[in-house]
Design brief:
Number of strands: 0
CATH class: Mainly Alpha
Number of domains: 1
CATH topology: 3 helical TM bundles of succinate and fumarate reductases
Strand content: under 5%
Number of helices: 4
Shape: extended
CATH superfamily: Fumarate reductase/succinate dehydrogenase, transmembrane subunit
Structural class: mainly alpha
Largest sheet: none
C-alpha cells in the first residue's frame, strides 16, 4: 500500500499558536477547576475552626507551610481572574466588544486587573492597609 506523503498534517502545539483570547478562555476554565478544588481547602479551614483549639493549631501549622501559602495565593488569583473574566462575559452579553482589537485589549485589561487585585489583597493582608 502506497503512503501519500503530500497530504497536510494537522498542526500541533509546537506549530500552532493560540490567540490570546483562546489562552484566556482555557485559563478561565482552569481557574474554575482551581476554585472548585480550593473549596476543599476552605472546608478544611472551616472544620478546623469548628473543631476547637487543637485542630485550629494543627491547621495553622499546616497553612504556614510555604506550599500551602502558594496554594492560597493561587486560589486568590484564580478567584480574581474568574471574576474579571465573568465581567468580560457580562459585557459580551450586551452584544458589544467582539472586534479582534477590542477582544485582545479587554484580555490584557482582564489579566492586569486580576493581577492588581491579587497584589492589593496581598498588601492589604500583609500590611493591614
Amino acid at each position: 500500500m502506497a503512503i501519500n506523503t503530500n497530504r497536510p498534517t494537522s498542526p500541533h502545539l509546537q506549530v500552532y499558536r493560540l490567540p490570546l483570547t483562546g489562552i484566556i478562555s482555557i485559563t478561565h476554565r482552569m481557574t474554575g477547576v482551581m476554585l472548585s478544588a480550593g473549596l476543599v481547602l476552605f472546608v478544611y479551614v472551616i472544620s478546623a475552626l469548628a473543631g476547637g483549639g487543637e485542630s485550629y493549631d494543627t491547621m495553622q501549622t499546616v497553612m504556614n507551610q510555604w506550599l500551602f501559602k502558594l496554594v492560597v495565593w493561587g486560589f486568590i488569583y484564580a478567584l480574581f481572574f474568574h471574576l474579571c473574566h465573568g465581567i468580560r462575559h457580562l459585557i459580551w452579553d450586551t452584544g458589544n466588544s467582539f472586534e479582534l482589537e477590542t477582544l485582545n485589549r479587554y484580555a490584557m485589561i482582564e489579566l492586569a486587573a486580576s493581577l492588581v487585585l491579587t497584589l492589593m489583597t496581598f498588601i492589604w493582608g500583609h500590611y493591614g492597609l
